[in-house]
Specification:
Blueprint (H helix, E strand, L loop, with lengths): L1 H32 L8 H32 L4 E2 L9 H24 L2 H12 L14 H8 L1 H5 L5 E2 H17 L9 H4 L10 H10 L10 H6 L17 H6 L5
Parallel strand pairs: 1-2
Helix pairs in contact: 1-2, 1-7, 2-5, 3-7
């Protein structure tokens, strides 16, 4: 039991430090290339950090238990020998994990915009108006639980090389931060090009934070486009600072 607790604590520390480093780095970049963008948002950013560190603990516990089981009992389908599966499995597993995570996120995210779940949990995330680089993990604990189970569950269902898993976690971290930082870090030719029509970017997610009832995806626009909830790219002009009736209507749900 002590070993499991220590593993959970270690993973909590890793998730927390990863969040601080990634969000801190992009916040620093924002300060340099978009000076003044986060002006006056000090109290909000402190709340985002507080909620995010709480979320780190919720993400860390199941990850730590699974890591302990993998290392000590061979649980999971994580493998370290590249020759254990055909090489095509490595890129295929990365895509499969990202698509599965995106699917889970889209539908749970829509559910969180129902009146009850929104008031109880998701309102914490939408209190970031506008979102900043610190908001990627700013969740109520109930919402954090819905995200914390995804990757630990997938490692029991889909074989993945440990290096490919690192790629998935890196993409998850970078996309989570950059999509909330209030400006597009990626080249405009990607954002407005063919790739951008299928990938979530900051300007796409900004519209979700401004209007609530659209653009629910995490990595891909597939489910938004299929389900008619994709309203295209948003604008950073108002930076999502509206707290009037538009914000209250957003809390009313999605359907």
């Amino acid at each position: 039991m002590l070993a499991i607790i220590l593993s959970a604590l270690a993973m909590t520390l890793i998730v927390g430090v990863r969040y601080l480093l990634a969000s801190g780095a992009f916040a620093l970049v924002t300060r340099r290339v978009r000076p003044g963008l986060y002006g006056g948002l000090g109290p909000q950013m402190r709340r985002e950090i507080m909620w995010s560190l709480a979320s780190a603990a919720i993400y860390g516990v199941p990850a730590g238990v699974v890591a302990w089981g993998w290392q000590n009992h061979g649980w999971t389908l994580i493998y370290t020998d590249v020759a254990a599966y055909p090489l095509w499995v490595i890129p295929a597993s990365v895509f499969a994990y990202l698509f599965a995570h995106d699917t889970w996120f889209y539908w749970t995210h829509r559910w969180l915009h129902r009146p009850g779940p929104f008031r109880v949990a998701h309102a914490v995330h939408h209190a970031s108006r506008p979102p900043t680089a610190w908001a990627a993990m700013s969740f109520h604990p109930w919402e954090a639980l819905t995200g914390a189970v995804v990757i630990p569950s997938l490692v029991f269902a889909i074989p993945i090389h440990v290096g490919a898993l690192a790629v998935v976690l890196t993409v998850m971290t970078v996309m989570g931060v950059t999509n909330h930082m209030g400006w597009d870090a990626f080249p405009q030719r990607l954002v407005h090009g063919t790739s951008g029509s299928w990938l979530i970017t900051a300007s796409h997610h900004q519209r979700h934070h401004a209007e609530y009832r659209c653009n629910y995806g995490l990595y891909f626009r597939f489910w938004d486009r299929l389900c008619g909830t994709d309203k295209g790219l948003g604008s950073f002009d108002d930076a999502g600072r509206r707290v009037d009736g538009a914000g209250r209507r957003g809390a009313a749900g999605v359907d």
